Amino acid sequence: MTNTKTVLPTEHCETCPAFTQLEQMGIKVGDFDRVVALAGNPNTGKSTLFNALTGLKQHTGNWPGKTVTRAEGGFEFNKMRYKLVDLPGTYSLLSASQDEEVARDFILFGQPSCTIVVCDATSLERNLNLVMQVMEITENVVIAVNLMDEAKRKGLEVDARSLSRDLGVPAIAITARTGDGIHTLLGAVSDVIEGKIETKPLRVNGTPEFQKAVNELVPMIEQMAPGIPNARWLAIRLLDGDARVQKALSTGELGDIVSRQQRADVKFSGKMSVEGRQITIRLRSSQEHLGDIHKEK
Amino acid sequence: MNTTVWLITAIILIVAIFIPRVGLIAIYKTYRIARERELVEDALKHLLDREQHARQASPESLAGILNLQRTTVMKLIEDMETQGLLESRGSDVHLTTQGERWALHVVRAHRLWERYLTDEARMPLGKIHGESERREHSLTEAQLNDLDAALGHPTRDPHGDPIPTREGTLLKAEGMPLTAWQAEGPMRIVHLEDEPALAFEQILAAGLRLGQTIRILDRNPQRYLLTDGETEFRLAPAVAANVSVAALPESETSKANAISLAELTYDQKAEIVLLDEAVQGFTRRRFLDLGLTPGTVIYPELKNFFGDPRAYRVRGTLIALRKDQAAQIWVKPM
Amino acid sequence: MEANEILAKAESLRNGLSTGFRDEIVKSLYTEAENIAKRAVKSTSNKKYDFDQKIDRLVTSPYAGLPIMLLLLSLIIWLTVSGANVVSGWIAVVLFGIGDYGRALFNQIGMPWWITGFIWDGVYLGLAWVVSVMLPPMMIFFPAFTFLEDLGYLPRVAFNMDWLFKKTGAHGKQSLTMAMGFGCNAAGVIATRVIDSPRERLIAILTNNFVPCNGRFPTLIMLATVFVAASFPPALTSLVAAGTVVGVVLIGVMFTFIASWILSRTVLKGEASAFTLELPPYRRPNISRILYTSIIDRTIFVLWRAMQTAAPAGALIWVLANIHLGDSNLARIIADWLNPFGLLLGLDGVILLAYIIAIPANEIVVPTMMMVYMGAGMMINGPTSSTEIFDLLVNGNGWTMLTAVNLMLFALLHNPCATTIMTIYKETKSLKWATLSVVMTLGTAFIVTFLTATIARLLGWA
Fold first, then answer.
1. Contact with chain A for residue B285, Cβ under 8 A
2. By residue range, what is the domain housing residue A266?
3. ipTM exceeding the 0.85 mark
4. Do A212 and A168 lie in a common domain?
5. pLDDT tens-digit map of B288-313
6. Pairwise CB contact (< 8 Å): C22 & B285
7. Nearest CA in chain C to A252
8. DSSP A172-236
9. B59 and B41, same structural domain?
């Protein structure tokens, strides 16, 4: 972890306590504790957030569809190393255009620990459509309501707490350009990953006829790949005739995910013990302090 | 010297003729096999077509459709019988289960390919039949399934014919010929027969298209006079028989007092009523994803020098649509 | 449970559902989103149109839209031309000074003449040329272009121009990819990924080269300054030169339309597909990011690539110029051999030789040309003023106005550089399309220059 620099513009962060915890690592560092995906509509400042977090200077022209592949970078927050994957900006995950496929495949098959969906505060309605589609695939979602400064300029007041309540996942107001709110955002991400915040994503049910069809398919999928995390979503995609999901099903790719996940569980417990060691080390180093507490007792 | 030249020429010739896979003989063999397969498949298609219309197929009808001598047709029927594709009883020829499955495969290939040519390759409607006719013989089952999925599992081809499913079920064709339609009031075009090509060209030239709502203004033995409310269409009765119509579905009635988005003027706001039937496949999905769903408020905001495309404000975002796309979105001015 | 069983079940369920299933899913998602957004957002102002909308009305307006576009293009090119001339001079003084010093040093320590020549007159001079010719226009062009890109102006260009693309059977987003092509055609080819329809994407890929990239701008700028602008009063020089370059760019745009139209009716038959283009809100560009992107990502990247090809090319020219056969050298002999064909196109043998050597990168065409013209083995440093260049070309090597005009046309239309060809191959995964991109552009260049030369000669202009 050589080469670390501070990320955010100093004028905003010298005051915040987490300042020293956030470190950038560029893309060279190989080992990461957690993988976070960055999804969102085009032109919501996704790449600005990506650059703010990783310190990389990924260029983003202001025209639709400029990122077709995904970019990766890393940062450190609260002693955990995060790998951040910037997905192409899309309106939806349902069509089969190239950029949408890249984004969806990563959320589904890449199994990120958490997905941040970046929203434009000035046109939430359009952005929430994507948020709900991401929440259909994965539960670990944090919403970053970006461009709060633009919204203010346009005379809009956005209540992030109302969004959290309605959607069942944390929604954090940020302004990626200046760095406002980014630490709260990362805090929420780490809380969601550690299970300190339990998410209950809102799922749109649709017509009864449709629900019945979904309910018939879900058990079949679960029987084929026990432990699959998003059988409901897969069922919906199959009903919609999604070529990619059909292929994943018939080539056994889905089964691989499940087994990979189970392996990941093993790895995670390994990591837990590593973390445990880290905690002990940290405790030892502040033994005096601990001693004080004991004395008080 | 001379002999050497001859020798080399001879060797080259022999190689060119006999070399496996790329030699002349190999090419001829491949051609023969492909040609035979085409013949068999065209015959199967014909038999299926006849059976669906509850008409008997005979060696004569086969000879007519395949443009072959009677003796050649008899030989073909014999071959297909040994392959278990058909049974002939007396002068009648029937498909076996196996034959029907193969026939459905070919029909599926043909119609999916037509769908592809229309939706993705944007080929004019008049040209897709011929192209599909060539393509239908070379697609495998797996390729078809991929194509089907990539196109979003369409149920009808661009002429309105149902596409057989992967399992081989074929829905019944909808509607009845225009000439048989007796009821008053508007109806919807559900099928345009593409054979014979000449009649199909006349239908297209008249300006009729699938999904259009029309009314009969006048009919007499010389011609049918139709209207869609704006334009009048004239068809000869023989051609009109190739147009199938059905009663209006519910969605069409809501279209009744709607206008197309392209007609919306600058000072007007409107609510989207529905996306036209003609928008299918990728374009339809894109429209939906952009939030062009029924009930959405939309209004034109920007116009350029050419007047096309225009940019519309939809759900807080500016989206530019070309005139022909806007014409496929039905809205109700507010 | 088998995968196939599930797929079959899903299909039968799907067929059982009423049609418009997808429509229903999306509609219910959007309805829910609408409700949630309504609860979370409060509008505190009733401004009907904000500033952005006013700007949008102006830059896309039926009357002002196209002129503004042309004005912005001219402005960028004028800035590039007028700024580049000044900076180019400074860099040349420094770099060629270093070259003189290095040569002197080598002579002093007694290096054999051919080592000194190869390194300083070949490799180094090639590099110095490329840097002094290319770097200044790029340093001005890229930031200006990146500024417009970050601002969000490019989609407005696509909006203004789309009708023309529709008429040629192409996609409106092709203007986005063309805009990227101004920077680098290879980047333009990659940018065509934003076009969903494969047919229209191929058209955009194949025609991208008709937009002169930054590597070709120096050639155009030099010719426009030396030949067209020279006869005007000094105050107007850069204006006239910029106007000429804008004219050449517009000819390139015209060829893009013609080529798209022809492609849509021949090898890539089809009608224009559905077109939806989002016009994103304007964003205040971040100046430091613009500088970083345009200098590090774009300028240095393109320059480095040019230098990699310039060094071996410089060496090759030196070798060609120093292999003597009789009283001539190899470069001259090849140039003379190519000369009849060159003259037929209104060019000459040296120009064609320069283009053959410069296949890896177009940037080195002018330097190569100059070196062959000047070089009798010992190369002089590049002429710095336009009168010197004019003198060298017209009085020394028989150039006419026709040569200049045709060289501009040739520079605009000829084949893509090696990197772009490779990119086309990678993007299309097809040798056929990569070959067609070369054949089509080169064919156009030959035909057009041949026609202008023949017509000019018949009319007695040249």
1. yes
2. 205-297
3. no
4. no
5. 888 899 889 999 999 889 988 999 99
6. yes
7. C3
8. EE-BTTTTBTHHHHHHHHHHHHHTSS----------HHHHHHHHHHHHHHHHHSTT-TTHHHHHH
9. yes
- The nearest alpha carbon in chain B to A123 belongs to B316
* CATH at A121: 3.40.50.300
Confidence class of residue C161 from pLDDT cuts 50, 70 and 90? very high
Assigned token pair, A248: 């994943």
Residue numbers of A between 94 and 123 with CB closer than 8 Å to B? 94-97, 122-123
Residue C204, pLDDT above cutoff 90: yes
- pLDDT-based confidence at residue A296 (cuts at 50, 70, 90): very low
Contact B316 A122 (CB under 8 A): yes
Co-location of A123 and A212 in the same domain: no
Residue C231: pLDDT above 70? yes
Do the beta carbons of residue A188 and residue A197 sit within 8 Å? Answer: yes
Nearest to C433 by CA among C206, C144, C210, C211: C206
Residue B283: inside a domain:
yes
Closest CA to A79 of A265, A261, A277: A277
> Could you tell me what percent of chain B has a pLDDT over 70?
96
Mutate one of A95, A158, A249 to test the B interface: name it (highest B CB count within 10 A).
Answer: A95
- The 3-state DSSP class for residue A93 equals coil
Residue C115 CB neighbours (<10 A): 10
Give chain A's domain count.
Answer: 2
Contact flag B295-C8 (C-beta cutoff 8 Å): no
Nearest to B123 among C63, C270, C277 (CB): C270
Residue contact A241–B285, C-beta within 8 A: no
Q: Poorest-confidence range of B246-260, C2-16, C184-198? A: B246-260
Q: How far is C37 from chain A (nearest CA, A)?
A: 5
pLDDT digits (tens, 9 = 90+) for B66-79: 888 888 888 888 88
| A71: alpha, beta or left? (left if phi > 0; alpha if psi -120 to 50) | beta
Task: Give C-chain residues touching B117 at CB under 8 angstroms.
Answer: none
pLDDT value of residue A281: 28
Q: Cβ separation of B316 and A94 shorter than 8 Å?
A: no
Q: Is residue B40 in a domain?
A: yes
